[in-house]
Amino acid sequence: MPGGIWVYAEQKDGKLKKVTLELLSAARKIADEQKEELCAVLTGRDVAGLAGTLAEYGADKVYLLQSEDLENYTTDGYTSAVTALVREHQPSVFLLGYTVLGRDLAAHVAQRLDTGLFTDCVDVRLEDGQLVFKRPIYAGKAFFEGVCPEARPVMATVRPNVLPVNPPQAGRTAQVIEVNPQPGSIRQIIRDVVRQVSTRPELTEADIIVSGGRGMKGPENFRLLEELADVLGAAVGASRAAVDAGWAPHSMQVGQTGKTVSPTLYIACGISGAIQHLAGMGSSKYIVAINKDPEANIFKVADYGIVGDLFEVVPLLIQEFKKLKE
Ligand code: FAD
Question: Which keywords has UniProt assigned to this entry (predicted)?
């Protein structure tokens, strides 16, 4: 009996990340076609309450790794605990989100298992009984499709917001298996977690992102973007030029050396559309660009372009969106 199709159930502060539900939905289909069980791996402290949601979104089995050591993510602790579990049960596939945590954990677990890992995938499908992983290359200019015919489990990280979520099946249950995690020797000890207080959605999970570039002219003008973001319930991002100028923190940077995002709507304000920026947001469903240069590269990828001064356009957008909300 194969060890199943596995999904890493990422949670933060006791709340499942949306990408977990996206992975479960995709993995459910694979599990059904492969006639394997769909198992979720849930790590943390006091997270057992999430098992029900995982079941409703498709998990047949939930491996629950709970301990004080796993309350906060550490590469050492999570890698040891998750690797031991994989070694014991030998899944055929192991999917994680392409998030800060998922990227780190997947790389370390794959290295320990000496197995194949596809990163930053935008699609996973079954073809002739073989899983095909699709990922962007050359900063999003082309796509690569790969298979991993031998090494098991085949591992992949999948970009958040690219896979659809199936509706939950109320009342569906899963077998919950409590595992006594063996975190091994943990060299990193988290003494305190300092949180940035924000009521806005997390950049990589946001459905709408309003981003600013060098065209914002200064840090004080990001207030304008925050106002637009708050009307839309959006997150605020930035280009590297804006981050390098010290107008926005690096945590807001979108692009090759920043975050990869896939929102439904990306509004680029005063951003020229350099290839390194497009690498991080090119898979957004709808791109709106506001730029005073009609030749700006961003218009080549934009679904809707507004040629104009953002300091005139953005206040008008805020005004109109506010009216729509009333
Ligand atoms: P600019 O290219 O200077 O564009 C500013 C735009 O604002 C212009 O198009 C201008 O017409 C417009 N504008 C000015 N005033 C107004 C106004 N009042 N109203 C409307 N429009 C206006 N970049 C990233 O973003 N993310 C990355 O992760 C990243 N990684 C990189 C990695 C490497 C290895 C390298 C070499 C570069 C990387 N870059 C990255 C930098 C990238 O090449 C660009 O330099 C950067 O994206 C430019 O940022 P920008 O579009 O804000 O600025």
Answer: Electron transport, FAD, Flavoprotein, Transport
> Which residue is associated with the tokens 């939930």?
62
Residue 157 CB less than 6 A away from ligand 1: no
pLDDT at 183 over 70: no
* pLDDT tens, position by position, 81-139: 999 999 999 999 999 999 999 999 999 999 999 999 999 999 999 998 899 999 998 87
Query: Exposed/middle/buried for 249, CB within 10 Å: 0-12, 13-18, 19+?
Result: exposed
Which DSSP string do the residues of 62-97 spell out, in sequence order? EEEEE-GGGSS--HHHHHHHHHHHHHHH--SEEEEE
- Going by CA atoms, what residue is nearest to atom 49 of ligand 1? 241
Using the mean position of ligand 1's atoms as its centre, give its distance from the Cα of residue 272 in Å.
5
Does 282 sit in the ligand 1 pocket, CB within 6 Å? no
Instruction: Tell which residue, 101, 96, 85, has the closest CA to residue 13.
Output: 101
Q: Report the nearest atom of ligand 1 relative to the CA of 256.
A: 28
Does the predicted interface ipTM exceed a cut of 0.90?
yes
Q: Is the peptide bond before 153 cis (omega within 30 degrees of 0)?
A: yes
Give pTM, 2 decimals.
Answer: 0.86
> Which residues lie across from 142 on neighbouring strands?
137
Q: Which of 139-148, 152-161, 229-238, 258-267 has the lowest mean pLDDT?
A: 139-148
pLDDT tens digits along 13-39: 899 999 999 999 999 999 999 999 999
Q: Is the pLDDT of residue 305 over 80?
A: yes
Residue 229: which of 326, 302, 314 has the closest Cα?
A: 314
What's the confidence (pLDDT) of residue 192? 86
Q: Pull the structure tokens for residue 130.
A: 């073989």
Q: Which atom of ligand 1 is nearest to the CA of 273?
A: 51
**Ligand 1 pocket test, candidate residues 252, 275, 281, 291, most atoms within 8 A of CB:** 291
Question: Could you tell me the distance, in angstroms and rounded to a whole number, from the CA of residue 289 to the centre of ligand 1?
Answer: 13
